[in-house]
Design a protein that fits this description.
The complex is a heterodimer of chains A (309) and B (161).
Chain A: E1 7-9, H1 14-21, E2 28-31, H2 37-42, E3 50-53, E4 63-66, E5 69-73, H3 89-99, H4 105-108, H5 113-119, H6 125-132, E6 136-141, E7 144-149, H7 150-153, E8 154-156, E9 159-160, E10 167-174, E11 180-187, E12 197-206, E13 209-218, E14 225-226, H8 228-234, H9 253-265, H10 276-301
Parallel strand pairs in A: 1-3, 2-3
Antiparallel strand pairs in A: 4-5, 5-10, 6-7, 6-10, 8-9, 11-12, 12-13, 13-14
Helix pairs in contact in A: 8-9, 9-10
Chain B: E1 2-7, E2 10-15, H1 22-28, E3 48-51, E4 54-57, E5 70-72, H2 86-93, H3 103-116, H4 124-132, H5 142-160
Helix pairs in contact in B: 2-5
Classes of the chains: A alpha+beta (309), B alpha+beta (161).
Chain lengths: 309, 161
């Protein structure tokens, strides 16, 4: 199908954009990358009255670093994060791993991180990363600016704490310390499919012991989920060797954390080709794999400290 | 809404509805039917064109978003005298097409990548990402990969000259 008719404005400044969004009588949608919005308009699942194209708004395409925080402007595309050097340290590696799972290069050339958070699809890679890292979403309306913590932001499938007249101007992510290892693993049928399950993890290590664990679960509930119980089970653990086979040894702390995440943190919904048992198993396996990847990433970037043969 | 599109170097002054996507305007208003529409959901990549040098899905971009910008389609690949582009020659030599429906999209995604960075052919992982970008139901992708590598080698030898 073709999109239904709508009005279109392409403001050049933020005040003009916010003025257009203030029209809450009508269905007003922000067009940034458009890789979900225009698709949904093709399918007539969204029929906006007004589309506000923010691509010409000055200043939204910047990424800035200050005080241990990366501020990602609303027009920074997925493809920007393809290179692990785009952002310093382990955060850059995590963003690069996550971005590589988002569709294909031509889609990544258009779609944006802020747009993914605005859309808030349960299978969105960025939403899982944002939740795992305690990101903040900066929204602005004609009435002012506020910052929403990721843990308060996601309200359900495609539902967020953003009000209709608010524009996401940036997403703030904390830089990760050098003693942090990161992992991102996704399971899906083909590269273009949405994630059946994906996991983002960051492990901060001291002397071979896990000091802090952060785990974000993608498509493991009706919204992105932080695996608090699994994280707790990892603190103070010395992961040692993860074995050589594809499977983690059953008694390994990462395998245990995976089972805890699947049983206690996730709230998966059955899908036609993935019933609950399958999904819980997939979550447990993927959490284990992601933790293993994060540990390997830590060891690769911090010499062999903490390695136990 | 009145827009100016520069397509393959030619200026088009058009009056289009905002709801029309770039691919439809290229095909129907500019009469450039080399750009094909397959899934119209951004998956298949048949409609891939370059906008300001960057490969994008022309089904997921509104024509009004391209006002004042420069678009390159498959019709803009060959030289003015009709001499095929190195990629087109490579696709022919490697049998990288059969029915041809996906070919324009593959050519454009490849030309965008090679012009941005010809060394992509040396990196198997990035080549995977590139070849996976679009769907082809005839060739099994290997001939397409070989064709892109072949054209990349030609780009590299030109760069040395």
């Amino acid at each position: 199908m073709k999109p239904a008719a709508f009005d279109y404005v392409a403001p050049r400044t933020l005040p003009e954009t916010l003025e257009a969004l203030a029209d809450t009588e009508r269905d007003v949608r922000v067009l940034a990358g458009g890789q979900s919005l225009i698709l949904e308009m093709h399918l007539h699942r969204i029929r906006p009255d007004l589309v506000v194209d923010i691509n010409g708004v000055a200043g939204l395409d910047r990424l800035s670093l200050d005080d241990g925080t990366v501020t990602v402007g609303a027009l920074v595309r997925h493809g920007f994060f393809d290179s692990p050097q785009a952002v310093p340290g382990p955060l850059g590696r995590l963003c690069s791993l996550a971005a590589g799972n988002i569709a294909h290069p031509p889609i990544r050339a258009r779609g944006t991180m802020a747009g993914s958070l605005a859309w808030a699809h349960p299978a969105s890679e960025w939403c899982g990363v944002a939740l795992a890292l305690d990101a903040a979403v900066e929204v602005r309306s004609a009435g002012g600016t506020r910052e929403i913590a990721a843990r308060d932001y996601f309200r359900g499938p495609l539902r967020t704490a953003r009000a209709r007249d608010e524009l996401i101007t940036s997403v703030r992510l904390p830089l990760l310390s050098d003693d942090t290892g990161v992992g991102f693993v996704e399971h899906r049928r083909t590269h273009f499919c949405f994630a059946q399950v994906a996991v983002a993890a960051a492990l901060t290590m001291r002397d071979g012991v896990i000091e802090e664990a952060r785990i974000g679960l993608v498509n493991c509930a009706d919204r992105p989920v932080r695996a608090h119980a699994a994280e707790q089970a990892l603190v103070g653990v010395e992961p040692g060797s993860t074995g050589t086979g594809l499977r983690l040894p059953d008694g390994h702390p990462f395998a245990r954390a995976g089972r805890i995440a699947a049983e206690q943190d996730a709230a998966p919904l059955p899908e036609p080709y993935a019933d609950l048992e399958y999904r819980r198993n997939a979550i447990a396996v993927l959490v284990g794999r992601t933790l293993r990847q994060a540990l390997a990433d830590h060891r690769e970037h911090n010499g062999a400290t903490g390695e136990h043969p | 809404m009145k827009i100016i599109l520069t397509v393959n170097g030619e200026r088009h002054a058009l009056d289009v509805e905002p709801r029309r996507v770039l691919a439809d305007v290229l095909r129907e208003d500019c009469r450039l039917t080399g750009t094909h529409l397959g899934c119209e959901q951004g998956v298949c990549g048949s409609c891939t064109v370059l906008v300001d040098g960057e490969a994008v899905r022309a089904c997921l971009m509104l024509a009004v978003q391209c006002d004042g910008r420069s678009v390159r389609t498959v019709e803009g690949l060959s030289a003015p005298d009709g001499e095929p582009h190195p990629l087109q020659r490579a696709f022919s030599a490697e049998h990288a097409l059969q029915c041809g429906f996906c070919t324009a999209g593959f050519l454009m995604v490849a030309v965008g990548a090679l012009e941005a960075d010809p060394t992509i052919a040396d990196d198997p992982e990035r080549m995977d990402g590139l070849v996976e970008s679009n769907l082809c139901r005839c060739t099994g992708y290997e001939p397409i990969r070989r064709a892109i590598m072949r054209a990349a080698a030609e780009y590299a030898s030109h760069a040395r000259l």
